[in-house]
From TrEMBL:
<feature type="site" description="Discriminates between blocked and unblocked aminoacyl-tRNA">
    <location>
        <position position="9"/>
    </location>
</feature>
<dbReference type="GO" id="GO:0016787">
    <property type="term" value="F:hydrolase activity"/>
</dbReference>
<feature type="active site" description="Proton acceptor">
    <location>
        <position position="19"/>
    </location>
</feature>
<keyword id="KW-0694">RNA-binding</keyword>
<keyword id="KW-0378">Hydrolase</keyword>
<feature type="binding site">
    <location>
        <position position="118"/>
    </location>
    <ligand>
        <name>tRNA</name>
    </ligand>
</feature>
<feature type="binding site">
    <location>
        <position position="72"/>
    </location>
    <ligand>
        <name>tRNA</name>
    </ligand>
</feature>
<comment type="subunit">
    <text>Monomer.</text>
</comment>
<dbReference type="InterPro" id="IPR018171">
    <property type="entry name" value="Pept_tRNA_hydro_CS"/>
</dbReference>
<feature type="site" description="Stabilizes the basic form of H active site to accept a proton">
    <location>
        <position position="97"/>
    </location>
</feature>
<comment type="function">
    <text>Hydrolyzes ribosome-free peptidyl-tRNAs (with 1 or more amino acids incorporated), which drop off the ribosome during protein synthesis, or as a result of ribosome stalling.</text>
</comment>
<dbReference type="Pfam" id="PF01195">
    <property type="entry name" value="Pept_tRNA_hydro"/>
</dbReference>
<comment type="similarity">
    <text>Belongs to the PTH family.</text>
</comment>
<keyword id="KW-0963">Cytoplasm</keyword>
<feature type="binding site">
    <location>
        <position position="70"/>
    </location>
    <ligand>
        <name>tRNA</name>
    </ligand>
</feature>
<keyword id="KW-0820">tRNA-binding</keyword>
<protein>
    <recommendedName>
        <fullName>Peptidyl-tRNA hydrolase</fullName>
        <ecNumber>3.1.1.29</ecNumber>
    </recommendedName>
</protein>
Amino acid sequence: MWLVVGLGNPGPEYAGHRHNVGYMVNDVLAERMGSGFRAHKTGRADVVEGRLGTPGNPGPRVVLVRPKSYMNTTGGPVQAVAKFYGVEPDHVIAVHDELDIAFGTLRLKKGGGDNGHNGLRSMRSSLGTGDFYRVRAGIGRPPGRQDVADFVLSNYSTVERKELPIQLVEAADAVESLITEGLEKAQSRFNS
């Protein structure tokens, strides 16, 4: 079984923000699984349970997770859901925004630092390791002297919103590839 954690902040006021790209990717995956998010028994996250794959090859069980906490306290809900399902960190995938990658670009990896990302830092702290997979959706750096926090907590630009659906589908495809084909094949396909 795999946990796919879409990082973001709960609530409609954050829905279109760059920091919520993980939530958006999980929405695409939930649609593919033919199900909507529902409250998990822990009360700390919304989840979708199912399988990602083709009808002839349904693939392993997957739980899509949207923590019901703000980004900097994501780890607690992730740990609670992982414990509930008995999933170890090596079967956890965090889908998140990445400042150091250009918008429209993806990178996949396992482990590594948090690079100042509060959601990753919280997950590392709560899981006791950073040795989980990451699907990093590039958002690029803020223009000019815009504060980083203001940038990640703002909506995508008009131009970016036109291209965003493509990035979300590619990131969802990358998650599926990672689960069904492994990291090396997924990286060769999606690390552009």
